[in-house]
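User: ok so my PI wants both of these folded by tonight, can you help

Assistant: No problem, let's get them done. Here's the first:
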Amino acid sequence: MKKLMMSGAVVTVAAVALVGCGSEAGQDKAAVSNKPVAASTEAPAQNVRTPEKNDRMSEDTDQGLASFTYYYFEAKNYAIQTGDADLMREVAADCSGCMTEADAIEAVYADGGWIVGGQPKALNVVALDEAKDEEGNLSAMVPYMEDARTTLDKDGKTVEAKEWDSDGTTLTVTANYADGAWAMVSVDETPNAGLPE
C-alpha cells in the first residue's frame, strides 16, 4: 500500500513539473511575440514601442525645445509604423503641415495598407540665436534624413516608393511654449538654410 502511494506521489510531482515547464515555455513564447518587428513588404510593423516623454521637453529652454523636437519625430515615426497619429496630433495640433502628414499616414492604414521604412531622423536640433517672439515661438534648424519609404495597399502592392536621399535636408521647426509645454507650430523644409554658428 505504501508503495502504491509513493508511486502516486511521484507521478503527481512529475505532472506538476511538466505543467511548470509548459508554463515557462508559454511565457518564453509570449516574450518573443512581444518583441518589435519591423515592417516588411509582407506585413506591417508589430509591437512598436510607444515613444515616451521626458522631463526636459517641458523646460522653457533651448534644450527643452530640442528634446521636444526629437520627441515630435519619434511620434511621427510611431505613426508611420502603426497608423496611429494621436501622439503627433497631441503635440502639433496647431501645425497645419504636421496635421496634413498625420492625415495622410492614417489614411494609408485606414484603407488596409501600411508603410515600410520612412523613419525620420533628426540629426541635431540647433535653436536659432533669436529670442522667442511675443507669442512665445522659438525656431530651430534641424539637419534631417528619412529612410527609404514604400507605401503598400491592402493587397501588398506598392502604391508609392521614395528612395533614400544620402544628402538629407535641413528643416526649420518652430514651436510655441505656453503653460509649461511646447507645441509644434510649423515644420518646413529649408535645404539652403545654414546652421547658426
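One down. Here's the second:
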Amino acid sequence: MKKPEFLYLLLGASFVSYRFAKRFVKDKLKSDFRYDIILNYSNDDPAMEQFDFYPEDNDKRFFNLNENEVVDILCRKNKVPVWIDISVCKVDRKFTTFNLLCAGRYSDNPDEYYYKKNGSGPFGIKSPNFPPGHNKDEKFKLKNSNQLKF
C-alpha cells in the first residue's frame, strides 16, 4: 500500500470513528485530529513468512502525532499492519485524539487486512473505552472513562 492510499484510509477511518464516538460521549469532539500509537499489540508467530515483523517495535508507543507522522511510522516498504484498531480516546481544546492499536504483522496484500470487507483496509472502528459500570443508554465524558493508558 502506498502512503497516499494509507493516508486516505487513515483519514476516512478517523472521520468514521469520530462520528461513531459522538454517539457515546458528552464531550464536544474537535475536527482536528491527533493520534497515539501502540505498535506490535498482537502476539504474532514470526514463522508466518508472508508478513514482515519488526520485533524492535515491541513496547514502542508514540503520542500526539499528526496524520503524516502516523503514515511515516506505519507504512513501511509499502506494507502496513494487517489490523489497526482506531478509537477516540481523549479531547482537549484543540484536538480529538485517537488510539491506534496495531498488529505486529505487516503486509501489502489487501486480502490479509482484517477489515477489508468494510472498505477500511486495515482499520477497525472501535468505540471509546467505556467507564466502569457504564449504563449503555447514557453518554459519558471521556476524561472520566477508563482510557487505555500508554
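DSSP finds two helices and seven strands in the chain. Residues 3-22 form the longest helix (20 residues). Good luck tonight!
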